[in-house]
Amino acid sequence: MHSELFQIGPLTLRAFGLCMALGFLFGWQAAVWLSKRTGQNPDQLTSLLTWLMVSAVLGARTAYVLEHWTAEFAAHPLDVLRIDQGGLMFYGGLIAAAFVLALYARIYRQHLFQITDLVLAVVPIGHAFGRLGCFMHGCCYGKITQSCIGVAFPPHSPAWWEQASATPPLIAQDALASLPVIPTQLIESAANFILFIVLYRLYPRRHRQRGFVTGCYLVSYAALRFGIEYLRGDPRLAIGPFSISQTISLGIMALGAGCLAYARRTAPRAA
Fold first, then answer.
1. What letter would DSSP give residue 154?
2. Residue ranges of the domains in the chain?
3. Which residue of 33, 119, 185, 261 is surrounded by the most CB atoms within 10 Å?
């Protein structure tokens, strides 16, 4: 865990912020390559992706704060502004970005799936870097494990604090490390890298079948996130038998299935 990479005077470079920046740059470059490869104009991508990044960060932070208000922010409300220290809920960002995409499509009179197919084809690479940032910061950790993949985080990390403040405490207040936990951040990062490779190769062949890549991403990531939630060990807001992210995942999977059905139904006309 290396939350702070280095400090120069008042400027501190944090791993989470760096990984977010790298994810945006790689995602933007991948979108440009796909646009050129499929004969589209990439000039409007920069402004669109910038707005998407801003709205996604604000939406992700808002959702995370609402879910963890009592545990993390009620006593220190100004910490809401410390995005550089981690604490983003991906689905909150996805929902906020979806509103921006819909508004963009309406303003420029473009088919919504024409935009979402391209954007969602590259979102996994940005998400993969974001989860690497989560690992280096220590948030979004998994359940306690004795398996060989377990990772022990240092004192004052999120996992350490959760275990030290449990009732009864799981570790002593002077413990030098947390109990080993499942590195769910690395698992999700690796899965997103794989998903990016699949969608990046799929998009040039199926981009004319509007909604297909969008549906593939929504169904694939929602299923992935639903399963990973069972491995998460950080505090989760529950809705019935599922966490809030699992509940959203079920809705996202249904939406993705609808996109695939639309793509199949309109395929002859698109061709």
1. P
2. 4-143+182-270, 151-181
3. 185
Strands (E), 112-248: 238-239, 242-243
Q: Which residue has the tokens 């590259």?
A: 122
Q: For 2-23, what is each residue's pLDDT tens digit? A: 666 666 666 666 777 788 889 9
DSSP 224: H
Strand partners, 12: 7
Alpha carbons 109 and 102: distance in angstroms, whole number: 10
Asked if pLDDT for residue 226 goes beyond 90, the answer is yes
CA distance 123 to 26: 10
Q: Where are the alpha helices (DSSP H) in 150-211?
A: 158-164, 184-206
Question: Amino acid identity of 197?
Answer: I
CA 16 – CA 91 distance, rounded (Å): 18
Map tokens 């377990």 to a residue.
150
- Angstrom CA distances, 220 to 73, 89, 243, 260, stand at 32, 18, 18, 12
> Could you read off the pLDDT of 45-93 as tens digits, one per residue?
777 888 888 888 888 888 777 776 776 677 777 777 766 566 677 878 8
